[in-house]
Amino acid sequence: MVLLVGMAVAFAAAMRLSPNAVARQRAAEAIQSAIAFAGLILVFTLGVKLATALGALDEGDLSKRASMAMLGLFFMATGNAMPKSLTPLSTLQCSGARVQAFQRFAGWTWVLCGLAFAAAWLTLPVAVAKPVSMLALASGVLLIVRQLVRLRNCAGVASLRS
User: Fold this and answer.
1) 3-state secondary structure 11-33
2) Cα separation of 117 and 131, whole Å?
3) Distance (Å, rounded) from C-alpha 49 to C-alpha 44?
4) What digits encode the pLDDT tens for the residues 108-149?
5) Alpha-carbon gap, residue 123 to 158, rounded angstroms
6) Which of 16, 26, 119, 155 is the most exposed place for a label (fewest CB within 10 A)?
7) Model's pTM, two decimal places?
8) What does the pLDDT read at residue 159?
9) Rounded CA Rg of the chain
10) What is the per-residue DSSP string for 65-132?
11) Contact between residue 132 and residue 118 where contact means Cβ atoms under 8 Å apart
């Protein structure tokens, strides 16, 4: 519940701080979907815990597996949305094509990392799923950081040419 309240506060702050109506609307939609997804994860895991406490379900590790698989789905949804939120060309310091290529790369990377993350939690034993999912996530982050550094170098070269 504290997480949801924190997200609601972030939502309110983003709405007040954004000077542009379009940017404000995008921020509102992104934060609303994140709050809804976090709520879905909490409701599901609490439902499994309640069903276990009432004796209707033999939990085992279902609650943990399901919440981690949903987190993987969240990574996939985030990756799917990344290329669709294009940066205005007027604010770019580098070529628009390179920035869009980076956004597509980052999106695909997050989708594949999320898929690997969710698949690990759904198919592997918990002791193996933890390191495998973290390895998938860390690999994706490192790949994106590598591409971001290459993109930043492009921006530095562009500013030197000016």
Assistant:
1) HHHHHHHCCCHHHHHHHHHHHHH
2) 10
3) 9
4) 999 999 999 999 999 999 899 999 999 999 999 999 999 988
5) 47
6) 16
7) 0.69
8) 44
9) 19
10) HHHHHHHHHHHHHHHHHGGGSPPPGGG-SS-HHHHHHHHHHHHHHHHHHHHHHHHHHHHS-HHHHHHH
11) no
At 45, list the tokens. 């895991």
- Give residues with Cβ within 8 angstroms of 129, minimum separation 6: 65, 68, 120, 121, 123
How many residues are there in the chain? Answer: 162
Instruction: Return the closest-CA partner of residue 106 out of 57, 157, 154, 150.
Output: 150
Residue that has been written with the tokens 């992104």 in this structure: 30
Using CA atoms, how far apart are residues 10 and 110, in angstroms rounded to an integer?
A: 23
Q: For residue 82, give both structure tokens.
A: 């990344």
Biggest alpha carbon distance in the chain? 70
Nearest to 115 by CA among 63, 67, 71, 161: 71
| Rounded Cα distance, 73 and 119, in Å | 10
Contact 118, 65 (CB under 8 A): no
